[in-house]
Write a structure and sequence with these properties.
Elements lengths: L4 H6 L5 E3 L8 H9 L4 E4 L5 H14 L4 E6 L5 H10 L4 E5 L7 H6 L3 E6 L2 H7 L8 E4 L5 E2 L5 H11 L4 E4 L5 H9 L4 E4 L1 H4 L8 H9 L5 E4 L7 E4 L2 H11 L4 H8 L2 H6 L24 H20 L1
Parallel strand pairs: 1-9, 2-3, 3-4, 4-5, 5-6, 6-8, 8-9
Antiparallel strand pairs: 7-11, 10-11
Helix pairs in contact: 2-3, 8-14
The structure holds ligand TUI.
The site of ligand TUI has 20 residues, from β5 and β7.
Length: 312
């Protein structure tokens, strides 16, 4: 699995991506994952250009290895983010939460390797028609944050069959068994989000980490389906209220107001009751705080153990 097709394209050692999670994936987390041989990803989220430039520069100070920037296409600063990519010479961009079509030309001219995250086969097919798209992340609805509707088990093989670029599987993967399963479905790499939230190098509040560690298999719900932006999130006072208001047909404008700034409250201020604690369904299995290197080694060892057991 090491040094496979994806590793060759991106010049990384291990085909494991750390998910670009808004407010969570900063230079500290991304550099630690890249230093451990995976692909560290800074999340631009809704952040302004100066924060993004600062994080890119910090990451370059912390690692000589390849890293990526995740661009959240709903960001109000999206044009500035694209400029930051080009000015700071970021070599790999992962896009999410929308169609990056408008930005392909600019990124491609700058020689950026583009890896769109897609939740459907039709999006996947559309994305690979563009120059510069070297791979796709196929993200199943087990994932935390903004999601589609199809689950990983069904989504991965269908996207693998539909495109001729390597596919990175995401959504519900947090140990070596999940990595092995993804590879069995035809993926050439995995993207892991939730497990990296509790990594030593992840700067989120202790309260956020504790909330993930305490989660069970049934601890997430999906809010925002009525506004067209479904988000998987841990159950708490905030998400239950949001869901209740949604069920009562509250207007999208009011819901948007209610949600504004809530991810930051949980990640930065540690308000895990009134804030938005995004995490995937696999949170129930994430129990241990450890370094990114230790997580990557465990994913690799677990993958190898699983494959051996399958063949026994
Ligand atoms: O982007 C994610 N996960 C995210 S982004 C985020 S920040 C946020 N917060 C609140 C509301 C919305 C976003 C938190 N988590 N994952 C990748 C992903 N991309 N999942 C689904 C999609 C996606 C959705 C629609 C990709 C393309 C797409 O295209 C729509 C179109 O118009 O073509």
């Amino acid at each position: 699995m090491k040094n496979n097709e994806i590793c060759e394209i991106l010049n990384i050692e291990v085909p494991i991506f750390q998910g670009g999670m808004a407010w969570v994936s900063d230079s500290s987390l991304a550099a630690a994952v890249s230093n451990a041989g995976g692909l560290g990803i800074i999340a631009a989220g809704n952040a302004p250009k100066d924060w993004i430039v600062d994080q890119i520069r910090k990451t370059k100070e912390l690692t000589n290895k390849p890293f990526a920037l995740n661009i959240m296409l709903l960001s109000p600063f999206i044009d500035d983010v694209i400029d930051a990519v080009i000015e700071e010479k970021v070599k790999i961009v992962v896009t999410g939460a929308g169609n990056p079509g408008k930005y392909f030309k600019k990124l491609n001219e700058a020689g950026v390797k583009i890896i769109p995250v897609v939740p459907t086969v039709s999006q996947a097919v559309r994305m690979v028609r563009n120059d510069g798209v070297v791979a796709l992340v196929a993200e199943g609805a087990e994932a935390g944050g903004h999601i589609g509707v199809t689950n990983t088990m069904s989504l991965i093989p269908q996207i693998v069959d539909a495109v001729d670029v390597p596919v990175i599987a995401a959504g519900g993967i947090a140990d070596g068994r999940g990595v092995a399963a993804a590879f069995c479905l035809g993926a050439k790499a995995v993207q892991v989000g939730t497990r990296f939230i509790v990594a030593d190098e992840c700067s989120v509040s202790e309260e956020y980490k504790e909330k993930v560690i305490k989660a069970k298999d049934t601890s997430t719900i999906v809010t925002g389906s009525s506004t067209g932006h479904p988000v998987r999130i841990l159950k708490n006072k905030f998400s239950k209220l949001f869901k209740k208001l949604e069920d009562e047909n509250t207007s999208p404008e009011e819901l948007e107001k209610l949600g504004a700034g809530k991810l930051r409250s949980a990640v930065v201020d540690g308000d895990v009751d009134n804030g938005s604690v995004m995490a995937g369904q696999i949170a129930g299995m994430v129990k241990k705080r450890e370094s990114c290197e230790s997580i990557i080694n465990d994913l690799l060892e677990g993958y190898e153990r699983t494959i051996r057991e399958v063949y026994e």
